[in-house]
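Input/output pair, single chain:
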Amino acid sequence: MRLKLYIFSSLLSFIILVSPAFALEIERPSNDIDIGKRVESSDTNNVASVGLGVDVQEYFEDSTFPPVEGKDYVKLRAVATANSRKVITYEASPVPYRWRDVSTPTGIVGDNVGDWVNISHPFQFYGGPLSAHYQNVWICSNGYVCFDDSESTSSEPKYVPNPEKPNAIIAALWTDLEVDGEASITYDNVYLPEYGYNYFFIVSWNNVKHKLTWERLTFQLWLEYTRPELARGAIQHRIFISYESVGSLSYSFSAGIEDHEGLKGTFGLVSNGITVQYSQNSNSAYIKGLKINIEENDANAFIDISEDEDHIRGYNVVVQTPTYSDENHIYTQALNGDDVLLLVGKAGLILLKKAWKVVGGVLVETISVINLLSYHMLSNADAVIKDTDELPNGGSVEVSTIHTGMNPDRWVVDANIGVTIYWVLTDQNNQDHSLSITATADYVMYDEYANRIDDSYSTSVDLQVVRDAGNSFASARVVPALPAQYGAFVGITIPPPGTDDVKDFYRVNVPINHILKAEMTPPNNTNFDLYLYKGTYLANSSTNPLGVPESASALIYDGGWCYVEVRAQAGFGIYTLTISSEPSSLPPPPPGGPPPPHPMGVEIS
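Output:
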């Protein structure tokens, strides 16, 4: 008997209208196999944001490796992430006037135009080491810059904050401007010892024309790069806007800053001959610890958490010596998702397509950020580990974060922890199993009266092992007609000690006058085919060559029970199957009318 491994997120973050609640299913084979699937979740309480990614890596039958010799197990790699940057706010205040001529042309000429420009040093804006560090900025002719992917050239200013795009915006003087032959937009990356020995990115709108009043306006924006030893704690990089000449200000304009969600922002002062500074005025929450908890209540399974120093890794957590970076990137796949990286809006942070990141002081492009995040998870994290020997219903790993060194009550604002989990199954492949993994961030928050509040926040995913989909119409697994994705195992000519599992059948009750749809992606170097049935009559099929995905649909005019079959023709492995139904555009059948002929009229016994 073969079983299936269901993986589903408690937040259902990537399934639409799914019932029951799971993200994908994977068959438990009768031989060793690389599973290579993952699941994740994230959540925030607007103080702490927590993410969890689980790489369902491998299945071993009758393992010969410690610590679970002679048993079947699923190998999991789990990473918990957390940050407390949701509470970041800025204030605007006048400072001594500053101005510097800059000469590098942006090439932005005309009306309602913009372009991307590189910043020599990463700019931290409503972000941190696991969030919004930006290396590129979008400059618009209409007096603003932004870091989102909208590439906005809007000439209609909006008050900040505003959830409409553009977001992650710094509006120096957002109004309807034109860069004509008498105007220019220039920039430079400069090092200025007279301003704290810091680096600055300066962009200047020079003699630009206001299209309504025809006044000529000149102003510039400074983005300050703060040294890493300062930025690692709670300090965001400062912004300076200098207004050389802004005319009568009788026109409509907006000036200020806004976060990437358009939910927080600060409006600023505009006047001729002044400089306005935007600086962080609060970040009162700090991550002080992370915990991964594994819960199962199963007499036929247990949890073993690896205590190998190479497997207990973390970023910004307390470690023991010796410690070293992860050159093998063992947690790359667990980290490879928007939820665990806290890049989705609900988690309060985002990485946009033109943004770069800084991890461990190294600039990386989006394409390689996951590997570098994994690399900088240090080994030998000083964790408290408990598995089934100490916790009969599961296991846990708990670790403290490091202090920033700024004062004894300030920890970091970003951290992660990675663990390797062996989910050991002791039955004879004939039982159901379930497992829940929870990531929890412990954090400290200070209220407006400097009172300390200790709290925590969590997110979780659930995993289940259930029976095989079935190898015939009679044993088919019943699934809903709502859109859902399944992962399962079939194969032919499987080498010993494995046995062939050629077919998987799914049974679905399709409403009257609906179209049944199925899409199946086989693993590499295999040939799996797809068949749809109305009752036991073949309704449609897809039989593409080796390695090509399959897709088929059939009109189920009179509704009723239908079947989807995945059949192995060559090779073996885990496929991904999506089953759904949608209303047909045809009129429904008349009440009591004769049933229509079956599409292909072939009954399969």
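The first helix runs from residue 228 to 231. The helical segments are 228-231, 332-335, 369-375.
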